[in-house]
Automatic annotation (TrEMBL):
GO terms for biological process: lipid metabolic process. The lineage of its organism: Eukaryota, Viridiplantae, Streptophyta, Embryophyta, Tracheophyta. Pfam families: LCAT. It comes from Oryza meridionalis. One of its GO terms (molecular function) is O-acyltransferase activity. This is Phospholipid:diacylglycerol acyltransferase.
Amino acid sequence: MPRRRLRRGDLACTVAVAVAVAVAAVAVAAVGAVGGGDGGADFDYRKLSGIIIPGFASTQLRAWSVLDCPYSPFDFNPLDSVWLDTAKLLSAVNCWLKCMLLDPYNQTDHPECKSRPDSGLSAITELDPGYITGPLSSVWKEWVKWLTFETALKLRGGPSLVFAHSMGNNVFRYFLEWLKLEIAPKHYIRWLDEHIHAYFAVGAPLLGSTEAVKAALSGATFGLPVSEGTARLMFNAFGSSLWLMPFSEYCKADNIYWKHFFEGKGGCHHRQQCDEMEYKSEYSGWPTNLVSIEVPTVRDTEAYPSIMDTTENITSSMECGKPTLLSFSAREVSDGTLFKTIKDWDPQSIGLIHQLEKYYQGDPVLNPLTPWERPPIKNVFCIYGLDSKTEVGYYFAPSGKPYPDNWIITDIIYEFEGSGNSVTGKPNNSSGDGTVSYNSLSWCKNWLGPKVNITRALQAEHDGSDLQTKMNVDHHVGQGILPNMTRTPHVKYITYFEDAESIPGWRTAVWELDKANHRNIVRMPVLMRELWLEMWHDMHPDAKSKFVTKVGLNQGQKKGPVRNR
């Protein structure tokens, strides 16, 4: 595994290791309590353990050094809370920033303060996974070491359930790609079968999120008591922030697996290969161009001075000429074209270009800004919300202020419930979850096979009498799959797309939850209920269907949790 600084990047691994034991003790204790058989599998389901990989900014950070904060009653001492200590943020924001910001070029700590991820289950339970998310994250661009899974296997004697939320799915993807390069090909699938029973991808931004563009150019506070400029400073300081950038569904990286053997590790960029649809579609498979930005007709590198430069007379050259409106697709965002184009007016974009080239295009394992195929895991469940108002595009214009406040948003393009959006382009059939657009969330439908069973049920308590089911629906990869079922106004449904036939021994399911918000979905009772039902079904000795039935007690289950309780 290539070495990287374990600054805040070891956060994902720290949390996963801590939770592997704690969650196993809770979740698996419940499984063991019911006894039951092995459901026809070759291992005891009572030995299952759980591994949680939280989303962006969902874990605590603590100080690892002493920092005196002048003119403030607060100082930072070792083990003091940094993320998130609201009192220190409000009363000593400049001091607090020293403990949060990294150097954008080499990802090192501020010379006066360092902070590290907390350990133990409290590191995530006191910040609900996904509830506070945004640009104040620690640097996640590390991998979940396979030691986590080896530990879980030894402690419980069985494989793990992987539960990843939002950006945590990106972390898990990186781990899988790293593992593929580290062990012999014939052992790769066997290792996954032995160590991972099921993967639950919740709110996964599989094609990125447009909110990352907003955060990079103008800042996104997500309700935190900081200015948008301060939020932008932090977002652009973290090398992992660009991991959330939107990218084209038509462009793939070269095969790093073969480069690994024939050219050696590292030292080469991932060359993107785009098929012809990239240039025919105009919007890289997205509903619209993601960024339209006004720039001065005459280039003037002093038009947007750094925050240390004088701000006098900086708007005169911009006011004299008519600005030019430039538009950028998802591909042009992810390959750096956007930032290279605006660097003459926004010199801080050079730092983002450096991060893209070093940590993404030059990564020795994977360029994560490329679509990913179904993970080779026996049971994969992709779960997300839909039909919430979601941002899918922005118009920016110069503000005349210095960095980080030099751009303002003049207009926002939205997806709306049930109608995608009204802009010219490729509207989605539904809207996203309030943070990630529908086309990005639903990319996992491409993991389904040619025949799919679709079921729609109420989210609320029900007896199964109003289920809607369509069996063996034709599915063509890349063309989407629609339920074509009825809806009652103001009623929330959950729609299941299930395939257990296309790959023998493997199951793939997509769950769409109406009105489930991206940041709150992990706390929804309906999601917890469905996850528990699925685990119950897997271990039940009399289970006859490949997936849990949707009607509960009266259809195929003798006892256990049901949807009408």
